[in-house]
Amino acid sequence: MKSTYARAMKGIRISEGGWSNHPRDPGGATNYGIIQTVYDTFRKSKGMSKQSVRLISEAEVNEIYKTQYADKIRYDELPAGIDYATLDGAVNSGVSRGAKWLQSALGVSSDGKIGSQTITAAAKADSIATVKSMCARRMSFLRGLSIFSTFGRGWTSRVARVEAESVSMAMEARGISSKSLPIALQAESVRAAEKSKNATAGVAGSGTAAATSSVSTDWSNLAGVESILLIGATAALVVLAVYLIHRSRTQSARAEAYAAVAAGATA
């Protein structure tokens, strides 16, 4: 595997942690990021009997990550940064989903299978812009899941870390100097923090508008159509406020992640 793989796997192993079996996690029993069904398939392919994923060996973990994830997304053929962002998405949400986020960001057919067309497009693309687009699409997908209320905070932090580290990899591949790298990453952090601040201000504005329209209106004097329109407008403001809250949190997580990677690049 190419040089970025060890760095990518370090990040993935930190994100995945060890044993877990959360009742709301559709993946079920998981150890080091490997779910039971994937482990069962792996052992069957080796002619071995099933056993709890809690007993998985380090050698098995490494082989599964390489053969079931890295090889399937053609990790070694993807540009630096794009490789890690795609791999982490595949591990977290499945190979097909991880591939689709890349393909959508590149503007090619999103069939969930990385072939020559995707590889060629990735090689020609702006790696930094592609990574950011992938992570934005990933966050949009995750926010739509019913279990986001349970796992959303962790997912948001994870995607932000992956984006920041992947952008750093892409910058390094472009030949940025060790002196300029932390400066560039810190600039990304500042921009994200400003976006978070603006979103927070928007939340306050939309919340005030919704409250004002609700309290100040004499509903008894409104006709049926007028009532429907006002209710719709108030609901729209609430939806906007929720969106801005998510945006503020996402941008805040991005700001923290870029700052952390910048600090690491300085050390």
UniProtKB/TrEMBL annotation:
<feature type="domain" description="Peptidoglycan binding">
    <location>
        <begin position="98"/>
        <end position="158"/>
    </location>
</feature>
<keyword id="KW-0812">Transmembrane</keyword>
<dbReference type="Pfam" id="PF05838">
    <property type="entry name" value="Glyco_hydro_108"/>
</dbReference>
<dbReference type="InterPro" id="IPR018537">
    <property type="entry name" value="Peptidoglycan-bd_3"/>
</dbReference>
<feature type="domain" description="TtsA-like Glycoside hydrolase family 108">
    <location>
        <begin position="12"/>
        <end position="94"/>
    </location>
</feature>
<dbReference type="Pfam" id="PF09374">
    <property type="entry name" value="PG_binding_3"/>
</dbReference>
<keyword id="KW-0472">Membrane</keyword>
<dbReference type="InterPro" id="IPR023346">
    <property type="entry name" value="Lysozyme-like_dom_sf"/>
</dbReference>
<feature type="transmembrane region" description="Helical">
    <location>
        <begin position="222"/>
        <end position="245"/>
    </location>
</feature>
<protein>
    <submittedName>
        <fullName>Uncharacterized protein</fullName>
    </submittedName>
</protein>
<dbReference type="InterPro" id="IPR008565">
    <property type="entry name" value="TtsA-like_GH18_dom"/>
</dbReference>
<keyword id="KW-1133">Transmembrane helix</keyword>
